[in-house]
Structure formats: structure tokens, C-alpha cells
Specification:
Length: about 260
């Protein structure tokens, strides 16, 4: 990012303007004096954090939960997770610009129990560290070149996983996907590989590799169960969602105890 020295009165708007035209979220939802943009309304209107709390939380909240959020982008869902009572939210983002935007959002929203980390989510999960009461992964699984490994690692670190993801189903608009037969711990599966064509755009918010692989929905549920997260609840399934079929899914390990 180009170094900028300002001589104007300090304000949140100054920080917002550092990335003018490059925001994925509508920050006017968070601070009304900011411009109303064409971004996603993730700070209040997006129902997914509340859906996660209703299915995987306690009494529709996350009081006492230590949450790991994978791919927070600009921190909109992070704000909701903290607002739903999370004891802590550790949010790992590999896009350096999105990470810096998240710090701006943290400042604007006054988040006190959320920490943003810059780096690869799989490497974070593979490194020694604590278990989490919930892993919240909204809009990231379909950006992974190895989604199977991400599920394996996530299941080893938590008894609860919330997913919103695109999945592959044969239809004309997904014709660019190339089937790739794989084997995962004895299970034959087919992943559907897609090469990014827009990584050079300022508004690219995809994965940190040049290719990604989508799962089929039955395989996703089967792999979750294989790694112990066998109590699955499909909250919404939209096969006609823009850019491809999408599912909102909560998975839990049977007998998982709630945090104290």
C-alpha cells in the first residue's frame, strides 16, 4: 500500500478511504456516516453468524465460546460473533489487504475480544495450539486447493464446525471445473478443480493459490462424518445460488460438551 501522510482531522473515514472502491463489505451498516457501498451487508443483515449460534451455540448465543474464524475477509462476521457473546474470536486471514481492512473494522467497531492473524488457515490449524469451541468457516472451503485437509485439521481442533460454502453439482455454469479423482484416507472422491482467472483484480477475494477444488455435497457430509463430525444439520441448501450451488451447514461431534 502506498504510504500516505494526512493533514486532515483524524477520523474513521480517513482509514476507510485508504481502500476506497476496494471494500467487499458495506461499512455504512457499521457506521452510518461512511458511504453506502455495493458491498455485502455482513455486519448486521447477514444471518449466518446467528444461524451458527442457534444450531451450535447455547440459547442462540456464544457466551463462553472460544471461536476460530477462518477467512474473516473484512471482519463483518467477526463483529457479529463477538456481539453474540463469544469469549474470544481468533480470525485468520491470508489476504494481506483484507487483514489490514479487518484492523480498521476492529477499530471502528471497538472489538475487544477479537484477534486478527495474517497467514494461512491450514498452517494455523496444523501448528500446535488450543482447541476451539467452534470453528466458523464462511466462504472459504471452496477456495481451498485441498478442502479435505482443511476439514481433517478443523475436526482435530474442534467438536463444532459451521460452514457456508459453494459445492459442485453438474450444471452448465460450472463447466470450467475439471474433475480430479482423489483418495482421502481410503475414501475415493472426486474434487472439481477451477483455475482462477481474476487474481489480478483489485477486488479479488479468493484463495491464496492459483487453483481451487470444489467438493460435491454428499462427499462433504461423508468426509465430515469420517472425521467425527457426524451430526450434521443443513440449514439452507440453494442449488441455484449465484456463482454456483451453496450450502449452509453445521456439523457437531456426537456428545460434544458445551464450554463451561
Amino acid at each position: 500500500m502506498k504510504r500516505v501522510f494526512l493533514t486532515t482531522t483524524p477520523s474513521h473515514r480517513n482509514a476507510y478511504d485508504l481502500f476506497e472502491g476496494r471494500w467487499a463489505s458495506d461499512l455504512s451498516e457499521l457506521l452510518p456516516e461512511l458511504p453506502v457501498g455495493g458491498g455485502l451487508p455482513g455486519f448486521r443483515a447477514d444471518p449466518r453468524p446467528r444461524q451458527a449460534a442457534e444450531v451450535l451455540g447455547r440459547g442462540g448465543r456464544f457466551d463462553g465460546y472460544d471461536i476460530l474464524e477462518l477467512g474473516p475477509l473484512e471482519g463483518a462476521h467477526t463483529c457479529q460473533l463477538e456481539g453474540l457473546g463469544a469469549n474470544s474470536v481468533t480470525a485468520v486471514e491470508s489476504n494481506s489487504e483484507a487483514f489490514l481492512k479487518s484492523l480498521i473494522v476492529k477499530n471502528i467497531a471497538g472489538l475487544t475480544r477479537s484477534t486478527f492473524l495474517l497467514g494461512d488457515v491450514s498452517r494455523h490449524l496444523a501448528a500446535p495450539g488450543p482447541r476451539y469451541d467452534l470453528i466458523f468457516a464462511c466462504g472459504i472451503l471452496y477456495h481451498m486447493f485441498d478442502p479435505l485437509e482443511l476439514i481433517r485439521l478443523a475436526a482435530a481442533r474442534s467438536d463444532r464446525l459451521f460452514l457456508w460454502t459453494h459445492y459442485y453439482a453438474a450444471q452448465p455454469r460450472l463447466r470450467r471445473h475439471v474433475p480430479r479423482p482423489v483418495e482421502h484416507e481410503g475414501m475415493p472422491l472426486t474434487l472439481h478443480e477451477l483455475t482462477y482467472r481474476d487474481r489480478g483484480l483489485a477486488t479479488f477475494w479468493g484463495g491464496n493459490q492459483g487453483k481451487t477444488r470444489w467438493m460435491e455435497l454428499p462427499d462433504l457430509i461423508r468426509v465430515l462424518a469420517h472425521h467425527g463430525l457426524s451430526e450434521t444439520t443443513i440449514i439452507t441448501d440453494d442449488p441455484d445460488f449465484v456463482n454456483g450451488p451453496a450450502v449452509t451447514l453445521a456439523a457437531r461431534r456426537p456428545g460434544a460438551s458445551s464450554p463451561a
